[in-house]
Amino acid sequence: MAIKQLAGIGYTALKSNFTELERPYKLNFAVTLLCQSRCLTCNIWELKPKGELTIEEVREFARKNTSFRWIELTGGEPFLRRDIVDIARAFYENSKGLYILTMPTNSLCSKELVIGRIKEMLDIGIPRLSITVSLDGHRELHDKIRGIPGNYDRAIQMFKSLKELKKAYPQLFFVFGYTMSKLNEGQLDRTYEEVRKDIPDLRYKDFHINVGQISGNYYHNENSPDIRPDGQKVAAEVQQFIRKREFDVGIIPSIEGAFLKNLVYYAKTGNPPMRSRSMEASLFLDSFGNVYPSIMWNRKIANLRDIGYDLGAIWNGKDAEEVRLQIKSGSEPKQWTACEAYQSIVGNVPGLIRTKSA
Question: DSSP class of residue 314?
Answer without folding.
Answer: T
